[in-house]
Inverse folding.
């Protein structure tokens, strides 16, 4: 396991799950204290590659009980948003394209696209993704594609 400071510096002291700041001075026993989360990033026939990321202790503990939840920003106007973490894991293993939300107009879709690309750059920095916006049925579909 890597040094907490090394992992924290690499992630700019932001929790990779909830995307909120982690206080490097907080107790490692506090819910909002720092912890190193090791998770299997890719699945390979002969094993798993583990990546170490910074997480709040509570986020890390909760991830062990239930699938991690990476919330969409409440400031976005998206309809039927897909769970971000699960979409990223599917794209990581299978590649391709996945529709993740619908937006009522193109401007909302562009704002959501910009936010999502920024969030994914911190959530999965090793995954090269782009977003696609396509009109359909009086709304705009937002998709993530692996490049």
């Amino acid at each position: 396991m890597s040094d907490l400071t090394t992992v924290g510096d690499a992630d700019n002291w932001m929790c990779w799950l909830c995307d909120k700041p982690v206080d490097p001075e907080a107790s490692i026993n506090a819910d909002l204290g720092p912890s190193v989360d090791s998770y299997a990033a890719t699945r390979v026939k002969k094993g798993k590659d583990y990546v170490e990321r910074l997480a709040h202790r509570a986020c890390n503990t909760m991830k062990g009980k239930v699938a991690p939840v990476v919330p969409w920003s409440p400031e976005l106007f998206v309809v039927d948003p897909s769970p971000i973490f699960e979409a990223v894991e599917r794209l990581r293993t299978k590649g391709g394209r996945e529709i993740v939300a619908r937006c009522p107009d193109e401007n909302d879709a562009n704002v959501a696209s910009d936010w999502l690309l920024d969030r994914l750059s911190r959530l999965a920095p090793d995954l090269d993704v782009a977003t696609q916006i396509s009109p359909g049925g009086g709304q705009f579909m937002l998709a993530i594609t692996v490049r």
Remarks:
- The radius of gyration is 16 Å.
